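re: the backbone from monday

yeah here it is again, tokenized this time
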């Protein structure tokens, strides 16, 4: 059972796809996977609902892990080239993507990271399959099962507003070893053994 987030009232319920705390976990995992990282460029969309708390948790994790993080703003429909140029000027060791909703520049971000040899933590499994180094995301099949349970309750007469929104409890760590090899990175065994999916 997923933990309760809140009882929304009205006619709304569901399963949340993002929690603020997972932003911190993503930075920590990136640092564990690439221990030499000391400067992380974080891309965020200021219009995304999850952005403010994602920033706070990322900053907290950066302080705890001893890395420097700098945020670069990139809205969903923006041309990413100016932001990428700013990132190059800052000389980061890695790239972190904070959830931002649909974005037209994701493929460009992955290509940019490969060109600049930046290990990248992304927020969707298929972006790792496309060449990102790693992701840490809620297990979608589990989320769908919880949504189905909500629908079942509603069809049996429950008021949606009385059903608490649930937070994900099962997450999936995905690592692309082909990308790691291309970047000249050796992922520590302690991280690999925790991975749910390893792309080779």
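seq for it, each position gets an aa:
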């Amino acid at each position: 059972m997923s933990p309760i987030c809140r009882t929304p009232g009205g006619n709304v319920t569901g399963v949340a796809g993002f929690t603020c705390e997972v932003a911190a976990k993503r930075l920590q995992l990136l640092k564990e996977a690439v221990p030499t990282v000391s400067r992380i460029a974080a891309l965020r969309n200021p219009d995304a609902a999850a952005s403010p708390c994602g920033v706070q948790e990322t900053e907290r994790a950066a302080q705890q892990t001893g890395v420097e993080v700098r945020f670069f703003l990139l809205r969903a429909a923006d041309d990413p080239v100016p932001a990428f140029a700013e990132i190059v000027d800052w000389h980061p060791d890695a790239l972190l993507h904070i959830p931002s909703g649909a974005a037209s520049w994701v493929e460009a971000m992955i290509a940019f990271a490969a060109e600049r040899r930046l290990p990248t933590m992304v927020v969707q499994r298929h972006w790792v399959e496309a060449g990102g180094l790693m992701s840490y995301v809620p297990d979608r099949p589990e989320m769908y099962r919880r949504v189905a349970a909500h629908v079942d309750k509603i069809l049996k007469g429950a008021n949606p507003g009385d059903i608490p929104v649930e937070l994900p409890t099962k997450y999936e760590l995905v690592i692309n070893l082909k990308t790691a090899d291309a970047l000249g990175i050796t992922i520590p065994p302690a991280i690999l053994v925790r991975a749910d999916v390893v792309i080779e």
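The first helix runs from residue 20 to 33. The radius of gyration is 18 Å.
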